[in-house]
Amino acid sequence: MGNLIVDPCFAPPSTEGVVVCAANPATGDPGFALRLTKPLPGDVVTPSSTAEPWLLRLADGQVCTPFTGTVPEVGTEEARWSCADASSPGSAGLVTTIDRGTTWTVQWYPAAEGHSPAHPSPPTVPARRIPVADVWE
Description:
Blueprint: E1 9-10, E2 18-21, E3 32-35, E4 55-58, E5 63-66, E6 73-74, E7 77-78, E8 81-84, E9 93-99, E10 105-110, E11 128-136
Antiparallel strand pairs: 1-2, 2-3, 4-5, 4-11, 5-8, 6-7, 8-9, 9-10, 10-11
């Protein structure tokens, strides 16, 4: 696979020695099976109560996935998720924060607003608040 990050991967309970990576329930992509060269560690990590969502589907149809590796910023905020709508090319965006009120919403910016943390710049457009339709944690 070269230098590619596929995170997260899941260990199906019925299959030893294999994990499933790059699955996306929002798009129906089943991902791919990755055969392990050695068993996974036996200790199980207790999930954090402050865990961030793995996938978001916004009310406008965009699916947002978390960044891995270098994270761009919008203004002084980290853009934690990258969003796209396969049915609407050019709709790519960045989510910086999630408001977990009664109805979850995100603070969404066009992808062009993202920049390297080494080159800060204020956003040129205000954030849009978009309701969250589905969350996978």
